[in-house]
Amino acid sequence: GLDPRRIVRLGDLDKGDDENFWSMADTGPCGPCTEIHYDQGEALKCDHPAGCFVGVCDCDRWLELWNHVFMEFDRDEQGNLNPLPMKSVDTGLGFERLVAVLQGKQSNYETDVFTPMITRVEELSGRRAEGEDRISMQVIADHARACTFTVADGAMPGNTDRGYVVRRILRRAARHGHLLGLDEPFLWQVAEVVIDEMGEVYPEIVERRGRIVEVIRKEEERFSRTLASGLQVYGEFKALMLREGRTEISGAEAFKLHDTFGFPVDLTAVVALEDGFTVDRDGFRTCMQEQRAKSGSERVYKAGLGAWVPLGDQDLAGYRNAFTGYDALVGVGRPVALRQAGDKVHLLLDTTPFYGESGGQVGDTGTITLQPSGRVLVVVDTRSGEEGQSLVVEGNSDELRPALAQAQSVDQKVDAAPRLATMRHHTATHLLHAALRQVLGDHVEQAGSVVDPSRLRFDFRHDQAVTADELARVEAVVQDRILDNRPVIRHDDMALDDARARGAMALFGEKYGDRVRVVEIHGSPQPLSDAPADAGDLFSLELCGGTHCPATGDVGAFRIVSEGSVSAGVRRIEAVAGEPARDLAQQERQQLQDVAALLKPDGGSYAEQVTALLEEQKAMRRELAAVQQDSARAGLEETLARPQEVAGLKLVCVRVTAEDKDSFMQLGDHVRDKLGSAGVVVLGAEPGGKAMVLVTLTSDLVDAKRLHAGHLVKAIAESAGGRGGGRPNMAQAGLPDAAALDQALAAVADLLADQVG
Fold it and tell me: Cα separation of 538 and 342, whole Å?
């Protein structure tokens, strides 16, 4: 049994101490819990006056590894604990902590979960994971993994909701990269390591590699521009300090860099240190506190957004600007209002061609030029709200307000390439929706979408996986409509009731006004010549405020990239149109050409040749494994004939060759059976390149409880820095490397003698 000294009572609910009583909230399911702590060794022992032990100190020696909550009560608002009708055990085991324990590491970041990413950062930076650099590398590794999976799941860096979280994580990693001297985008290269290391278990990140890398790289480039602006202002501060004979950047200056240009104070400190300066951190914190304390004014924040500040006499109550972007990518407007939004500023112009993110379509980017000053501002995003389309620029409202108030007009230019690519994907989304309903049935309805320059993502309600044949038919239908090159008809102002009467598709749960915009597409008419836009059968009719191609032929090409489940009854298709579809086709063609070059030109179809090669490879592997197994068994015959005697037991302890883990285990069973009785088998090998020890016992030793294989293998592994355990009759352990394996096998006889005792 377990040594009573290893059991520690924590808390006493009857006395008001709920140290070991867990609940989700003040009311609801709850119960006592038990925690499993792991002793990481004397080296981490603290000097607590009451002793170093669980429940006494809080040092790193005792690692909480596992937790079990015995859910047996329902706490009501009066604090009474009422028995639950259905009791359960809520268990929580930290995967990374478990790996750290199994691998004998004191930190999650020292395990092979993170070391490949950290090694890549070392290669990119030319530095070692030591001192302060170690912390930065750990942050980068962790954040690269987080960004990889969130972007794969469809999250995009942005200014709201989960997009804002992704942006903050990514930029924090980029900031730590700058601390390591990585001034160019680098995180995407670390993300590639994440994909390589974890793609076998999470194939979706392999499938979306290009998307993940591109999103991360572009966000890094955007942040680099932010840093460039901050460095320019820092240079102005530096010149001023030299003139004034100062050696410290004031808190107000550091705060302006942070608040106006998004320049992190930690990076300010690093840059300043290189110039022999320091930063007034206390003053910076004071400025931050003053900003947060302001309320009821232009700088009041609600849900992360400041209040709109008029730039003239425009009454903003019920105001909505005019959108001209359906027909133009340039325009001239007049500044109406602005507001702070975190480290960005939202600008409201009376008229604009910039489309704000809505309906799944991403917001436009571009530039605006204030006239007559000629000052150029980069539009990094466009948002949509009750007030219309608002342009998002880097900066601070206090600094921008005077320049905007003096501007007589604002020249606007939308980035054409991304907008046109987005339009292709949006029109393709409508074609895809209609094609899915045609192939799968009228039950298909949209459950969400994302449309941007590089791809489209379409979620739809369907209760089973779409087959390969169905996907091919859907893709063919979309491509046929593209070849038809039919006009995309816009109804910019239609009564909602009329749209519904015509059968227009609407997004479930979306709220619409009395007047809506409808997009209509027809199939190929007969004959084609001089046919009106609405000739031919109606193919697609949807409520939509987004931007579209003038005709379906402008989509160019369409390819489905993936199809999978999002949740119960909801499927997701990712696809590309236009240039991304062309690029995908070229990439796949090149891959086929590369494979074809390796095959025989007259050896039948390429598929047949590849299949034959794979079958041949499988057969050869089976033959090799059998030969190795026979060779290993033959090599053991001499050892089996003269086993070592330890404490009256027959011991076979030897290093063998094994192709894989299964053959290694089979070899252990074979040797044990040959020994007959009173036998202990300890084999060492490197199946799959990983050093392992296997212990098996004959049944008489197990039945008599003279020995426990799990206890023996644990002692053997620990003698060489490994970890292991298992059942009474069979157990295994992993070791750091081949040298450790030799060390472990050399200690077996003494350890066996100690345990038999």
Answer: 46
